[in-house]
């Protein structure tokens, strides 16, 4: 992990297309501005984790349904 120090209004550049700027510092909370192409998804970690969990559950449900259909139509 790369650890960088930034002050208010300073920016970090990621690749050619992404910039992260420190917009405000309020106590223990930092507000960041992220400039990135529209096709780049940006999520807070807890939101990303929830999306991954839902995707995994949907994939498992799809697999379970396919297995159920296979069993039903195999016996017919």
Automatic annotation (TrEMBL):
Highest taxon of the lineage: Bacteria
InterPro entries per UniProt: CsrA (IPR003751), CsrA_sf (IPR036107)
Keyword Coiled coil applies: yes
SUPFAM superfamilies (alphabetical): CsrA-like
Cellular localization per UniProt: Cytoplasm
Pfam families: CsrA
Main localisation: cytoplasm
Keyword annotations of the record: Bacterial flagellum biogenesis, Coiled coil, Cytoplasm, Repressor, RNA-binding, Translation regulation
Coiled-coil features, chain-numbered ranges: 44-71
Annotated family: Belongs to the CsrA/RsmA family.
Oligomeric and partner information: Homodimer; the beta-strands of each monomer intercalate to form a hydrophobic core, while the alpha-helices form wings that extend away from the core.
NCBIfam families assigned: csrA, PRK01712.1
Function text: A translational regulator that binds mRNA to regulate translation initiation and/or mRNA stability. Usually binds in the 5'-UTR at or near the Shine-Dalgarno sequence preventing ribosome-binding, thus repressing translation. Its main target seems to be the major flagellin gene, while its function is anatagonized by FliW.
Protein name: Translational regulator CsrA
Organism taxonomic ancestry: Bacteria, Bacillati, Bacillota, Bacilli, Bacillales
Gene designation per UniProt: csrA
């Amino acid at each position: 992990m790369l650890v960088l120090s930034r002050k208010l209004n300073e920016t970090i550049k990621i690749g050619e297309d992404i910039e992260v700027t420190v917009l405000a510092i309020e106590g223990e909370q930092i507000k960041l501005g992220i400039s990135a192409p529209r096709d780049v998804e940006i999520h807070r970690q807890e939101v990303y984790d929830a999306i991954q969990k839902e995707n995994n559950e949907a994939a498992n449900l799809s697999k379970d349904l396919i297995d159920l259909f296979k069993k039903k139509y195999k016996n017919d």
